[in-house]
Amino acid sequence: MLELKHVSKTFFPNTINERKALIDLSLTLENGDFVTIIGGNGAGKSTLFNAVAGSFLIDSGNILLDGQDITFLRDYKRARNIGRLLQDPLKGTAPNMTIEENLTMAYQRGVKSSFRLGVGKKEQQAFRDHLAELGLGLEDRMKTKMGLLSGGQRQAVTLMMATIVTPKLLLLDEHTAALDPATAEKVALLTQKIVAKEKITTMMITHNMQQSLDCGNRTIMMDGGRMILDIKGAERSKLTVSDLLAMFKDKSKKELDNDRMLLS
Questions:
Q1: Is 0.85 topped by the overall pTM?
Q2: Per residue in 101-148, pLDDT tens?
Q3: Contacts of 1 (CB under 8 A, 6+ apart)
Q4: Measured between alpha carbons, how far is 49 from 75 in angstroms, rounded to an integer?
Q5: Are 195 and 171 in contact (CB under 8 A)?
């Protein structure tokens, strides 16, 4: 479903601030894969997501989604097939628009006809049914502005917006990191439920090393713009957090420097 071939990206080239963010990175995701991604500070995790989403053009290499080369496709065109959640619950939605209006905007992404204001009764009922599955009582608050919701409620709605039209690829960039532990766990469970139900190919950056082993079917570790570990199957099922730390030290020849990951 996703293939990266020798992708490289350098920021501020030929200056004192030059930073090689991605270095000859190759990666293949099969349809339905759920990959968790961990790594230290500046490992290239978010840069990888930005490259896939089209936030910038890569310097070299190719990116293919479902067999189509999207290397030079603009970000708004990629968004029709790629759902994305960011760490900040305030991003990804329009705070002054209602829940229903935000969902309508997301729903229009998968509709080929021209944009129209409002939705019919059929779509409204579908929105209510989806919101009810979240278990947050939001199906009775569809006229509430997004800016009035709590962080957890807003992130749950954002998750629904990203998947209401089933994307070919879902990118989760530490989407529970800004939430309190109880809410983060609830949003994480909702994520796994939706991904499993719709069989969405998913990549999730997480700072929680235990979560990286509990979620999905594959764990990737990055360092210095490279992929240094790719673990799946029986090998992954036996791993502990201590094992991951030891493997990181062995592969990178240094200690993990991400305090949030170590404290999690």
A1: yes
A2: 888 888 877 565 545 555 677 788 888 888 888 788 888 898 999 989
A3: 29, 30, 31, 32, 33, 65, 66, 168, 169, 201
A4: 12
A5: no
CB 72 within 8 A of CB 130: no
Q: Long-range contacts for 164-168 (Cβ within 8 Å, ≥24 apart)?
A: 164/103, 164/106, 164/107, 164/110, 164/127, 164/130, 165/106, 165/107, 165/109, 165/110, 166/198, 166/200, 167/81, 167/82, 167/83, 167/200, 168/1, 168/65, 168/66, 168/81, 168/82, 168/201
Confidence of residue 166 (pLDDT cuts 50, 70, 90): confident
Residue 185 · residue 218 · CB < 8 Å: no
Task: Enumerate the β-bridge partners of residue 27.
Answer: 4
Beta-strand ranges (E) seen in the chain are: 2-11, 19-29, 34-39, 60-65, 68-69, 82-85, 169-173, 201-205, 218-223, 226-232
Query: Which DSSP helix (H) or strand (E) runs through 41?
Result: none
Section 206-212 average pLDDT: 88
Question: In angstroms, rounded to a whole number, what is the distance separating the alpha carbons of residues 263 and 259?
Answer: 6
What is residue 116's predicted lDDT score, i.e. its pLDDT? 54
The per-residue pLDDT for 113 is: 52
